[in-house]
Recover the amino acids of this structure.
């Protein structure tokens, strides 16, 4: 049973517009949430994180929102750029687990 | 500091052979993690070390898998008697405590 779900396998967005990637989780004990970006044949690269005591965290063009009551996490990228085209993974920590639990990823394609 | 380093980047082996992968973490990080990633999936947690102590190994996929971290520096992941189902990307990550984990570029294993 998947504890972290990214329901959109792919997302296509026009350059300059906002990209919104979504993630749902099942365990309310998760307390730390992260987004990673991955290019083919490379390891995941850390983007941004948020702890459960916050509901928003910003870093440049990237903003992560956390809705604990809905067990929902989202990543906003504004404005989207061609270099943002990659697979984005949502990951969670806590809930008694020692490592990160990842979703299956969303392939973001930025169109010119 | 050049980040997390993994060696080799690619490994092709015959079924039944043993393989060993190496990971050099970021020097000031005390935690080291191993993950496995298969096509279309997010990374799957296998095991982790805090300094030289292996604190979680129940998630290793079978008793053919073992990991070591002598002296709390680099780590090795060994797979004995490889099977075709072991073909995957093996990722190493490091962190300082529960902060965000930084990943290496991975070792792509192909068992033929």
């Amino acid at each position: 049973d998947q504890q972290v779900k990214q329901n959109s396998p792919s997302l296509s967005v026009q350059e300059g517009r906002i990209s919104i990637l979504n993630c749902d989780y099942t365990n309310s004990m998760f307390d730390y949430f992260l987004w990673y970006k991955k290019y083919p044949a490379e390891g995941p690269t850390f983007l941004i994180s948020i702890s459960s005591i916050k509901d928003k965290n910003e870093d440049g063009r990237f903003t992560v929102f956390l809705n604990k009551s809905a067990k929902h996490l989202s990543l906003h990228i504004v404005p989207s750029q061609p270099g943002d085209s990659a697979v984005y993974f949502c990951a969670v920590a806590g809930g008694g687990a020692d490592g990160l639990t990842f979703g299956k990823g969303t392939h973001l394609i930025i169109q010119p | 500091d050049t980040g997390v380093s993994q060696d080799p980047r690619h490994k092709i082996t015959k079924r039944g052979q043993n393989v060993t992968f190496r990971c050099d973490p970021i020097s000031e990080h005390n935690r080291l993690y191993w993950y496995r990633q298969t096509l279309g999936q997010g990374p799957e947690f296998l095991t982790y070390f805090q300094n030289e102590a292996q604190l979680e190994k129940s998630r290793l996929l079978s008793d053919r898998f073992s990991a070591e971290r002598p002296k709390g520096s680099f780590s090795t992941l060994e797979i004995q008697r490889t099977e075709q189902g072991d073909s995957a990307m093996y990722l190493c990550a490091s962190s300082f405590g529960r902060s965000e984990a930084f990943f290496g570029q991975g070792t792509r294993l192909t068992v033929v």
DSSP finds no helices and eleven strands in chain A. The longest strand of chain A covers residues 30-38. The interface with chain B takes residues 4, 32, 34, 36, 41-46, 49, 89, 91, 93, 97-105 of chain A (CB under 8 Å).
